[in-house]
Amino acid sequence: MHNKHYIIFNMAKGRILFVNQSIVPFSDESEAAVLGRHLPQFTQELGREIRVFMPRFFDVNERKHQLHEVIRLSGMNLIVNNCDHQLIIKVGSIPSARLQVYFIDNEEYFTRFGNTFDEKGFLRPENDERILFFGRGTLEAVRKLAWQPHLIHFSGWFSCMVPFYLRRINKENAFFSGARTVLSLTNDAFEGSFSDELEKKMRADGATAKDLRLYQHLDYMTLMKAAITYANGIVISSPNVNPELVQFAKENKRFVLDYNPNTTEFYTKINKLYETLCGSALNN
Prior knowledge:
Layout: H1 3-9, E1 15-20, H2 31-45, E2 49-55, E3 68-69, E4 77-80, E5 83-86, E6 88-94, E7 99-105, H3 107-111, H4 127-145, E8 151-155, H5 162-172, E9 180-185, H6 197-204, H7 209-212, H8 220-230, E10 233-236, H9 243-251, E11 255-257, H10 263-278
Parallel strand pairs: 1-2, 1-8, 2-7, 8-9, 9-10, 10-11
Antiparallel strand pairs: 3-6, 4-5, 6-7
Helix pairs in contact: 4-5
């Protein structure tokens, strides 16, 4: 399927970091999980370097997928809500796609609890700290890899703190300086909201008053609008994305790539968006 487009892009280079909430076959099939599985493969086949990260949720079967800990990346402690939490990095692979996937893990946040919703379909109260841990943990792991991405493409509301931490880390360290960001919007809205504790925990982790103005209601729409505000480009990854979010992205003059059901054309245009945002960096 990809060969003719590989010919077009075979000189394209650059380093793309994918941060996904879900990826097939580690997650149940969904629009986001399918994109998380196939877009990195397509991008890699264009000659780009990639790294792929996702949370090690409760339902990721470590034995089935042969996950193992990456000792050289694990072991650092991240402070969330004034408490130390050990960052554990695991890795699995999708042999048919020649893809490695890194998993952000922690016994308390991911092993002890289930996935993002409880048995009744409500948001788990621990999710506020979990999204903070995942966002920061991913970037710290990439920094420990000494692998500087030109662009970070994040997908799913669970990854919405990635751009917040990207800005925070850049204030302390120039490792991610110049990295552009792309957000995939998909059909993953949830009911309810996070507790007000999220704002306090973000403030403890360096959030400014300007940051916190974006997080007043702490529901799905607020989190995604904040992520749009931080992002350079927006990919509409589902025909069922909330139109208010699409309008918000366009009003804020973000590069917006509309949904295309033809996956080859869609993934090609996404990679063109990467080039538009990064310029010559992806062709060096």
